[in-house]
Amino acid sequence: MNRGSVKFDEMHDAEGGVREAYSGYCEWFHEQDTKSLKRKDAEADENFRRTGITFNVYGEDEAEERLIPFDMVPRIITANEWRKLTRGIEQRVSALNSFLYDLYHRQEIIRAGRIPERLLRNNEAFLQNMVGFTPPGGIYTHIVGIDLVRTGPDEFFVLEDNARTPSGVSYMLQNRETMMSMFPELFTRVGVETVSNYPRRLARSLAACAPQSTEGKPNVAVLTPGIYNSAYFEHAFLADQMGAELVEASDLRVVDGKVQMRCTAGYQPIDVLYRRVDDDYLDPLTFNPDSVLGIPGIMDVYRAGNITIANAPGTGVSDDKAVYSFMPEIVEFYTGEKPLLPNVETWRCADRESLKYVLDNLAELVVKEVHGSGGYGMLIGPTASRREIADFRKKLEAHPENYIAQPTLSLSTCPIFTKKGLAPRHVDLRPFVLVSPNGIDITPGGLTRVALEKGSLVVNSSQGGGTKDTWVLKD
């Protein structure tokens, strides 16, 4: 695994030549007028602002809405590279779904000693209400985002699994739409796989997961916490693009054993609810009694088999970074195969020997909370101050079970467009996966997040990162 200062540049090889994936794009780019490109860059920002493509930041004094920076240089993946990634993603997502089914039934993987029982005992995302219950179609993870990082020509690693409520797909779609509107001629020169049919694929996949009791065409709705949620733009965008209803808790109630939506003619049953509300707020009669974001009694309807909730309650247990560290064992246990996409090397701080190693090497490692997300609650050793390292050491010593550690990877770089020309910046990739009884469907591309600051490894939008259009080339 590459570490340290050696970086893999996805556009240029070590001699400065253009790699195969970028050959068509670079030919086009060098034909362009720089002033025209700068105008296009400004137009893209204005387009995103006008469209309302923002996200909310909580706990800060400044305005809560921010524009997500967009970079107009695409991240490009060859067809052959994508085929390899697809096989690995399919294998991993299949194992994740089997793992969740097993956890909520016989727990064979724990009985076999392949993962410790404490992973469930200490995991707040494990829901006793789901024990013994099988969701419609046996699907737990209807929508999955697998975060990938690259360190070399054929070196891709899984950084995180997002099986609870993965976000960001609306930015993937808007990035592509923006690129096609700005540079239509570019897409006639370079054959790129489409991503624009994702909402249609999502609607089809969700409908296929409807309960057996559904009569006629399934009614699909998107449940949002409301306009103040950080991902509200995405909730509204996806509902509109799918032709589904966007609903809040106040629009729904349980009537005659079904979750029903208020409409002009009374109430209409909902068969599939794509919820963007966390488990704890989903049903005040089952979980947090103070929640105003959920539907009282929905869990009773769910367990009676009269509604599909996507993703299933309790899937968040697989997002835990301590569980992530066991994914090689999980993949092999349920598929009988070695993982095609490896994990990043991970030290579990709950283990005494691992903790000693981490404490001895804090300045060189990345340390993360097992339940953390969004780039918060982590230490990046090489860029941290002595004070930050000392403070984090105290946290680790007090609650080692709350943390895992990983090497500081030399993430691959892709160029971004700056006032001075192209400049390399670190990137990651989140492909989006749909799962139904009909199979696993992976959209060719995904959301590329980019660290806009020179040398930064943090790509999260909440931490100053931006996004790029992701191209998968046609054969």
Automatic annotation (TrEMBL):
Domain Circularly permuted ATP-grasp type as annotated: residue spans: 74-451
Coiled coil ranges: none
Name of a matching Pfam family: CP_ATPgrasp_2
Listed name of the protein: Circularly permuted type 2 ATP-grasp protein
Organism: Altererythrobacter arenosus
Higher taxonomy: Bacteria, Pseudomonadati, Pseudomonadota, Alphaproteobacteria, Sphingomonadales
